[in-house]
Amino acid sequence: MTPQKSQFPILITFLLLICVSLSRGQQHTWQEAFKALGIAWNPDGTLERTIQIPMVDPTPDADTKPAPTALSQDIQLNYKSKAYIRLYIPINPPKNKKLPLIIYFHGGDFVLFSASTVIFHNFCNDIASQFPAVVVSVEYRLAPENRGRDPWMEYADFSRVFLLGSSAGANIAYHVALRALDFDISPLQIKGLMLNQAYFGGVQRTQSEIRLKDDPYVALYVNDVLWSLALPKNLNRDHEFCNPISGGTYLGRVFRLPKVYIKGDFGDPLVDRSILLAQFLQQCNVRLYYRFNQGGFHGIELQNTTAAQQLYNDMRFFVNDMYENLNSEDLSHHQVIRLPSDDDKSFI
């Protein structure tokens, strides 16, 4: 298979990184990073985004041509801010059984893309169809500009809510889960958290960041610039929004998290950040299940159908409490932090 608004807290915005060809073995500038990302400053401090990945409309009817994988519709949350969600259900939802509710935060390095971007739309279609599940894809506000119940929701089991994010969306999902612990969000009950290639960082470089510093998808110098756009001004990459184990206001809540699934690929420069988070969650006695694949790259599930199917299967097992195909052993033997050297350069 080709991988294709109940109110809820929306945090600051971070994003997934796009495929760019980058030169090797030299110092880089802001201007080079902006060019690689297809962004430029406007006079009013907003960004002009010139690289466009197609956006698609929802498919609320099963008789749409070509035939949709799942049904979808957009629901306006706030007409003033134009905030909305894209809601997905299977084409033939069960009549006498409630489905898990998956709240999805798309990737894009906090700076790019939308819930309607075709790669994320297809991803949610596949999840709604294959789990099956009701999926809510959040259209969140992008950096740096921004530092009602629907009949379809009757299919959702509000006592089985799962937060799902890819890349920057995984960062958002993690912080949403932590913030939600301090609020009464009934009837919603968050039962699990799924983090796919989470977009985290830190001042101190990891081995994977150095080993893959010229990666065509997540080059280190582009990564630094993106964090400088996404984080509050005058703060570095050890702020809790970037580095979830550096301290901050959320650490005391971590032990209260529900079960967590983490997926990473050793060909992704960000993989060590997911390992560090997994180690930290294990130390906090959070129920953790994970998969770290050899090879791969950032966003592999958006281009490789085999990788996408593996991810769908893992998440379906996780949601349905079937863990025989997921790892849960201790990760403390993984050493991922590399001490900084004179060759390590940072834009913030």
From TrEMBL:
Entry superkingdom: Eukaryota
Alpha/beta hydrolase fold-3 domain boundaries: 102-147, 152-300
Keyword annotations of the record: Signal
Example of a GO MF term: hydrolase activity
Record-annotated membrane-spanning stretches: none
Signal peptide range: 1-25
InterPro entries (UniProt xref): AB_hydrolase_3 (IPR013094), AB_hydrolase_fold (IPR029058), Carboxylest/Gibb_receptor (IPR050466)
Name of a matching Pfam family: Abhydrolase_3
SUPFAM superfamilies given in the database record: alpha/beta-Hydrolases
Family to which this protein belongs: Belongs to the 'GDXG' lipolytic enzyme family.
Name of the protein: Alpha/beta hydrolase fold-3 domain-containing protein
Organism: Buddleja alternifolia
